[in-house]
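Hello forum,

I keep getting stuck at the same step: I have a sequence, I want structure tokens, and every attempt I make locally crashes halfway through. Rather than fight my setup again tonight, could one of you with a working pipeline run this one for me? It's a single chain of 239 residues.
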Amino acid sequence: MKKLAIPPNGDSYHHGDLRNALLQAALRLVAEKGAEGFSLREAAREVGVSPAAAYRHFEDKKALMGSLVVGGMGQLALAMERAVDGIKGRAGSAARAVAELAVTGQAYVEFAVRHPEQFQVMFGPWCDHLDFTEVPSEAKPRGRDAYQILVDSLDGLVRAGAITPAARAGAELPAWSMVHGLASLLVAKALPLGPAERAQATALTLRTLLRGLGCAPRLLGPAVPAPDPKPCRTVPCRR
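Reply #2:
Ran it on my machine without issues. Output:
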């Protein structure tokens, strides 16, 4: 392992990947204190290094959190791409186009549930600190970020004849809002659902979206019953 050169202050630390260790420490601190509740120095202490060692990798907390945002976006895009890889069916068919939108939505929700701290950082206040005039390459490991995957899936529905061009116009907003809204409710535990109920809720949300876009019922399979969510009705919701 490479020994990091740290100014003489009583600290010494051996680590093969300090940058990643700091990112993981930041996620633990997000879970414990919230995204605003800690400093880069605290992340350094969590890992066991001096602040000087941390500053070699991140100029400040803004840079640390920005890396979490961009890295999370890349992980999300990759999860959605892998979901598309598993689809069977004839390329260009309406059934495959519907399946592509459905599995990318499912992957989005599952990513949020499995990585709640990362998800909160990605779509929280720290996202505002980044300049996304051009999407960073880290956010699109296969050449597309999560938003572009959604755009391409909606375009695929039109090409396959599953929805009309008129229904497609502006559909990114309601599509993203519905899936992201469900993911956010699950992460906040405002909808305390187990894995089976979560899958049911996701399928119902996506089916409702596709019906709203004008997809024929024959392309959507059998109706999906609503799970019993027993939502938390107190504000704020803490569980």
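The CA atoms of residues 77 and 149 lie 8 Å apart. If your local run keeps crashing, start a new thread with the error log.
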